[in-house]
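Suppose a colleague, Dr. K., hands you the sequence of a protein chain of 165 amino acids and asks what its three-dimensional shape might be. Before reaching for any lab equipment, you can write down a predicted structure in token form. Begin with the sequence itself:
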Amino acid sequence: MDRSEEDEFRAFVGARMERWRRAAYLLCHDWHLADDLVATVAGKLYRHWRRVSTADNPDAYAQRVLTTAWIDERRRPWRREHPADELPDPGWTPPDRAGDREQMVELLRQLGRRQRAVVVLRFYFDRSIEETAELLGISAGTVKSQSARALELLRALSLAKESPR
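The predicted structure, expressed as tokens, is then:
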């Protein structure tokens, strides 16, 4: 875009900015979101200014961009989320105490190298069975059997530590 086109763009947007903001507010009923929508529209118009400036009706073009931006925003997944008064109970308490972390590290040390690698990749790094198998150069079946044996051993070791002697 050359200097004269940029000046033309600035004049076009400057003359219409407040009207777009009011129109965006009427669509979404939120001034902050309206400002975001107008910014999105300005960016899209800037990128396609040559097409916009040669359109039969640039104002209608801009209004369509605004409406489409609002529809796209409404489709975003986080718009379907609703705030709650209380957080749901996760069902478990993450290990946030130093003793818990030390206990976990100690339990992992008692596993064999391959079992420890499988457990860490699968459950700490949240890798799939196939990804873990590829990373370790073993079959998916081996990942499954090693993780099952490792978890069984970890449960047994954890229970043995908890029970009084």
